[in-house]
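Incident review: delayed structure delivery

Summary: a single-chain prediction request sat in the queue longer than the usual turnaround. Root cause was a stuck worker, restarted by the on-call engineer. No data loss occurred. The affected request and its eventual output are reproduced below so the record is complete for anyone auditing the incident later.

Affected input:
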Amino acid sequence: MKVIFEGKTKDVYMLDDGNYKLIFKDDMTGANGEFDPGANTVGLTVEGAGLAGLVMSKYFFDLLKSNGYPTHYISTQGNSMTVKPATPFGKGLEVICRYKALGSFMRRYGDYVNEGEELDAVIEMTLKDDKRGDPLINEDALNAVRVLKPGEYDVIKSLTQKICKVIKADLAKIGLELCDIKLEFGKDKNGEIMLIDEISGGNMRVWENGKSVPPLELSRKIIPEG
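Output delivered after worker restart:
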């Protein structure tokens, strides 16, 4: 395998058949030893986090496939996932869907909202750029810097809200509440926009009875045998 990218929580390799292999790590984003799905630094390492992220990702990719949503997922093996190649938007575009005012949303807009206030699937987009702290960016700027083409913002926003609605409803079945989630999109070889990266406890906040559920505990609640 050829090393393509060594990331914070996953390493990416190219396979001989042109597909990619994602190796999940036990590293998690955050700061000062505390987990934060919106952080752009590794804040802690938790044994089993990588496998938990892989198992959850498989679960949700299968769920989305059954609902007709395009993703890069192919299969899982051991601690790795095989995925279709994808062309990212720019150097990477992250899309956050928010159902509650928490985390960085509160840090920016705390003068206008209360902690935990209900939000109606609010969409934010950030550029993957560690040097600049993953800056928030709006539709006009995304078009101006040619990360997106005209019209793609609306496609990604709509797809994100539909996907998150499916995930939120699935979690609600077992008494869990999705507060926010960070997704990533790319294009397949035909130019179709599809969901890429992972869907795990490492990129979402979930509450149970008003209290935050840690990523590993979340994985066990969703897939008990995992």
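Verification: The radius of gyration is 17 Å.
Action items: add queue-age alerting; document worker restart procedure.
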